[in-house]
Specification:
- By secondary structure, the protein is α/β, with parallel strands linked by helices.
- Helices cover 42% and strands 15% of the residues.
- It contains 15 helices and 13 strands.
- The strands form two sheets. The chain has a seven-stranded parallel β-sheet, sandwiched between helices. A six-stranded parallel β-sheet has the order 10-9-8-11-12-13, with helices on both faces.
- Helix 1 crosses helix 15 and helix 3 crosses helix 4.
- It starts with 9 loop residues before the first strand and ends in a 7-residue tail after the last helix.
Length: 383
Amino acid sequence: MGRGFKMRKRILLSGGGPGGHIYPALAIADELKRRFPDAEIRFAWTKEGLESQIVPQGGYQLELLRAAGIERRFTFENIINLSQATSGLWDAYRLLKRFRPDVVIGTGGYVCGPLLFNAGLQKLPILLQEQNAILGVTNRLVQRFAGRIALGAGEAVSGISGDMRRVKVTGNPVRPEFFSITRETARAKMGLKADEKLIVLAGGSRGARSLNHNSIELHRLVESNPNYRLIHATGSSQWEDMKQIFSDLGLPLESLNRKTIPYLENMPEVLRGADFIVSRAGALALAEIAVCGVPSLLIPYPHAAENHQEANGKAFVRAGAAQLIVDRELTGPKMVEAVEKSISDSKKWLAMQASALTLGKPDATQMIADLAVELIEGVDIDE
């Protein structure tokens, strides 16, 4: 029986490696499950990382692939990684022959490379999702096999070759929790008054050393201004280090208008209520910042592949939604200056807020799912 006669849709998603590729994949899977309740949706990932826990918690079956990133230099570790990558090609081939998906969705990263390459050779429908302003290495290599390409940022178009009709700028998926609370409700839950300005400092779940180590002046600024509030999430790996630094300086971790914590459990609520955020420039963080309309100071992670975080951040700067300081030039006084420059000038703050909102794509998940449905249903690119 041919593929077209299968009643139950089969959908396979993959991604992974550096970055938060799992969360967009989960959002896309949830939307496709809503549209095809009987669909069999699986994730092809490695056993390393949080994915091995997050995917089953989301109610999806995890298919394990062997994979490893290859650095562009000769090392013993690279030889081992090359062996893993070769094994991953065989894993992907067997999975695709066994599962026969109606569509394969790749959200970037080296893990999905062998799967998408095999899917292309087997002429299976492929949807690529690129999160960053620069097309990633894996997506550049496999784009020729893709029937549809969803871009998180318009700047990534420059990396696309071939038929541009298959390309759509959709933005990046954002968790539904960001849309279930209003700014007013979030601020009320946090006890914020109308004239109080909430500043958030967050460098991701693991933390950002340079942001943390240059934050002391910001803490002191907030201490001296009764209308400012600060929530500083140090990241789990930086928490003990920052506790020691605060202790050495005689600065309490928490005061009436400051709070320092290892991790933000309630990011949707905090970001909805925030007036300003100091952050790295990862694609998913920026998608959340944009849909919430929060003016920002961005300090791109300097070791991101192909410096994509700086490209992401510069797109926000060009739109008027953010300021940017490269990591090597960041100092405490520069951080304070950038924060005060934005939140002390209401006209500038409102302009940045409006610009951020224009970059937000609340319907990104739905748009990406639409592209997947086109491939599942065999809709021609000309239709």
